[in-house]
Structures are given as structure tokens and as C-alpha cells.
Amino acid sequence: MPLERGVSVPGGGLPDPALRAAFLAARYGTAGSGAFLDRERGGGPAPDWAGRGWGVVTAWNPAGQPRGRAANEAAQRRLRAASRWAFREGVNGEGEWQEPSLILGGVRLRDVVALGVAFGQAAVLWGAGQRVALVWLPASGVEAARVERWWLRPATAPVTDAR
């Protein structure tokens, strides 16, 4: 069922439009090497953290609902301990919604989804190089995991297409 260019949603269903807009507008990556989701490929090389089979997951603010700092930090420590993959410390979002994340290397899609579900997240990212999937999880309001396909655009590259 085609919805729009750049989106593949097997079986249909997307989360709340405001939540989706926040994920699509967020910056992902490390403090020194960030990227945005974009419909078009281009704008430079993939960030240095975006190799083969990478994922981005956080334990902060499950289901997109704000939680206190202490609870978020404790959950993030549990996420670090639960990761069986090499990871880099990452940062998702900016401003009031900026939160720590883990950028996992050499991870399979099903494994990053399982971590996101275990920590009550609305969505996770999984990719290979510049190709990335925004994977909506049941905590976002969808019935089962749903995938939107995007490209990474380095944070310094110009926007190629309006969302």
C-alpha cells in the first residue's frame, strides 16, 4: 500500500503525526558527526559511524513520553549493559528533546528492534551506510513494527527535499 515516496509501510499504520514529525526532524549521530533523515541520497559521504549493519537506540523517554532525568539515566545504563554489540555514545534530537543514544555497530535489524521494544521505545533506526530504516515499534501506537525507508544526510549538507 503506497503512502508517499520514501515510505514503505507493510500492512499500513503510522504513529501519531506529531511524533512522526519529531523523529523525521531529529538529528542523529555523535556530537561531532550528525545526520538527518532525507528522501534523497546525496549531500556527502556517510557519517563515520554509519558502516555495515548499524542501529540507533535510546532508553530515554519511552514511547515519546517525557520522564525525569534520574529515571532516564538509569534506563540508559541498563541499555548499555544489555548491549552485546560494540557501540558509540550518540545523541538524538536537539534542544529540550536531546537525549543520549547508543550507535550500535554490526547489529541486525531484529536485534535493534528487540532492544527498542525491551526499553519501550516508539522507534529505532537501522541502516547500512547511508541507507536507513526508521522502524516504528508497538509503543508508537502501531500494531507491529513498521518500516519507513530513508537516506542519511550529513548535518552539514543542504536539504534535498521537503518532508
UniProtKB/TrEMBL annotation:
Pfam families: DUF3293. It comes from the Bacteria. InterPro entries: DUF3293. This is DUF3293 domain-containing protein. It comes from Deinococcus depolymerans.
